[in-house]
Amino acid sequence: MKLPWRPMRTLLPALALALSAGALTTPAAAAASSHDSRAASVAGEAAGGTVGSGWNDYSCKPSAAHPRPVVLAHGTLGNSVDNWLVLAPYLKNRGYCVFSLDYGKLPGVPLFYGLGPIAKSAEELSAYVDKVRSATGADKVDIVGHSQGGAMPRYYLNFLGGKDKVNSLTGIAPNNHGTTLSGLVTLMDKIPGARNAIGGLTPGLTDQAIGSDYLKKMNSVPDTVPGVRYTVIATKYDEVVTPYTSGYLTGPDVRNVLLQDLCAVDFSEHIAIGTVDRVVAHEVANALDPEHATPTTCASVIG
């Protein structure tokens, strides 16, 4: 059957942008311009992953205060630099060894990642965690991810043996149980062949849509694995993970946090919550070191 082009022409970019977690222009507070930040990404990749701000430093050795390195996993259409221009330095300045990977690359598509099959991306995460553990000498890591990057590690934990190498997973607006994309997925499924067409081009997008084969596999097992501590930080203004509660997890050692319960006047939506929100950064620090946690409030933005 011939696929109607006009609806698809509208749907493809809308779906891609809606699932984006870091593809929009990085805010000026985080970088001089998106051009500069993407140049930093290319330069960092060419230098073996080292960026000028001090994270992805493979000579970093975890301290007694922070004994585990932190691995950051970007969102759909993001990369290892753009997504973390606020959080990575925030954690680095607090004494953590911080690392970030690029995953889910498609041939011929530079800088915009997280588009490949999520199960394959989880394999890339597995290899990267081993690389970080080898470089730092740490037995386990803590993973922090935004959007797809907050949910994809669960495949690694559940199916690839990651539970023995990970202490905690903190998801910022993660798409754990699938999204309706504010009804866009319903529209996609009304167009004959649309899901298959989009999935054939960018499987990392349709894997996250409610009803996907990937999500059926993920939802066939418990949300959590024993021995790993989970934190989910969601925003009620999320227009991408809809409903936002679909990001929440059920199981032991789970803490589900609504950003607006910490700061009622924080209006961060899906992208801002993972890229520029310092209230969230403070709560991430609490998740990484709960024994020394301090209250997260609106004032945390200047902390």
UniProtKB/TrEMBL annotation:
Keywords: Signal. Residues 1-30 form the signal peptide. This is Lipase. It comes from Streptomyces hiroshimensis.
